[in-house]
Amino acid sequence: MQRLAVSIVLCAILMPVAAAAGGTAEKVAMPSPEQLAAQGYESLFNGKDLRGWKVPEGDNGHWRVVDGVIDYDACSEAKGNKSLYTEQEYGDYTIYFDWRFKRATGLYPMPTILPDGSYKTDEDGKQIITPTANADSGLLFRPGHQANLWCWECGSGELWSVRLNKDATPEERAAGVPKAKADKPVGEWNRMMARVVGDRVTIVLNGLKVIDNAQLPGLKEMRGPIGFQHHGGPLPPKQIEAMRKQGMAVEDGAMSPASSLVQFRNVYIKVHDR
Predict the structure, then answer these.
(1) DSSP state of 271
(2) Model's pTM, two decimal places?
């Protein structure tokens, strides 16, 4: 994360930056945790325990705090929803947090997302699939909506529920595609900001505005907890057995190639009155 002078932070100077995915992305200064505290942001994570968070019932210690960060191994034993949520519900807010993947969990059959939100196809109309090292989590920022954290080529911040919404307009779907791939390599810390107001969301990743005031078509629930997403986990024994019958070398306890081996820290929020 690049840290700029406070004067630049306060002036919110934006600069256009060339991008690989959706065209251009504006450069945005990212305040440090100390600057956020000075600006009235509240810390949602104390660095010691998960006070203020709802650990899934039956999780059995897989969401935990390790060396001052929220650590997850994608192996929650909860029977229902395995994601980690805040105890409090929020309406309009801005949230900042750091996240990183500890490692990738295998090769995922990854399609290529085009700027309009569709998938790249070959001359026969079939999706082009590229096996790619991957890990997967997300910011659950509104009920039914998430900003993906992953290793896909389009970059993190992608709005799955918007991009694939058949009732949305082409412009609305395209707004769910990141304007740049701003992710750091697996193992390095990323800094993300999400501003959620009504049915609109803006996302900045590592100083680039990757989602710009995208609309959430048909949104009905304007309040809810904020969550960090569980994804993937250990492959079922039957799937491992089937893969071995196909001649694939798969170890016992192998993980899905889209698992959330992820950590979070420096989680700060400011609630906006309307």
Answers:
(1) E
(2) 0.89
The Cβ of residue 116 has, within 10 Å, a number of other Cβ atoms equal to 12
Q: Would residue 63 count as lying in a domain?
A: yes
Angle, alpha carbons 45-50-53 (nearest 5°): 85
Amino acid at 36: L
| CATH number of the domain bearing residue 135 | 2.60.120.560
Closest by Cα among 90, 91, 134 to 110 = 134
Look up residue 39 and give its two tokens. Answer: 């600006």
| Six-digit token string for 224 | 């809810």
Looking at the structure of the chain, the number of domains it has is 1
Tokens of 1: 């994360």
**Quick check: 272 and 94 in contact, CB under 8 A?**
yes
- Domain ranges, residue 209: 6-271
Most distant CA pair in the chain: distance in Å? Answer: 62
CA–CA gap between residue 50 and residue 112 (Å, rounded): 36
Q: Let me know if residue 1 belongs to a domain.
A: no
pLDDT of residue 77 exceeding 90, the answer is: yes
Supply the DSSP string of 23-86, one letter for each residue: SEEEE-----HHHHHHTTPEES--SSS-TTEEPPTT--SSEEEETTEEEE-S----SS--SEEE
Q: Which pLDDT tens digit goes with each residue over 163-205?
A: 999 999 999 999 999 999 999 999 999 999 999 999 999 999 9
